[in-house]
Amino acid sequence: MRIDKFLKVSRLIKRRTVAKEIADQGRITINGKVAKSSSDVKVGDELAIKFGNRMMVLEIERIMETTKKDDAEHMYHILREEDLN
Asked: What are the structural domains of the chain?
């Protein structure tokens, strides 16, 4: 699954276009490598996402094409959150 779609389906980012913009700005890494919006993710990958002055590192636990709100939080596990100040 593409990273922009994963971020939208998992509800980490509300809109796919916003997820695409963030990825294309180089603010997302997959397993330590800068990701583009078309980069594929799979179960076990580690994502690092920069949101302004905060960074969230998470591990993908499940890939689903569509989800309900309650199921979305089971798609990933947050490893750590850091302030970049």
From this structure: 3-83 (3.10.290.10)
Percentage helix, strand, coil for the chain under 3-state DSSP, each rounded to 5: 25, 35, 45
Question: pLDDT digit string (tens) for 22-45?
Answer: 999 999 999 999 999 999 999 999
Question: What 3-state class would DSSP assign to 60?
Answer: strand
Distance CA 40, CA 5 (A): 10
- DSSP state for residue 74 in the 8-state scheme: T
Tell me, yes or no, if the pTM score tops 0.85.
Answer: yes
DSSP 75: S
Q: Which of 36, 56, 83 is nearest to 10 (CA)?
A: 56
**In contact, 26 and 39? CB cutoff 8 Å:** no
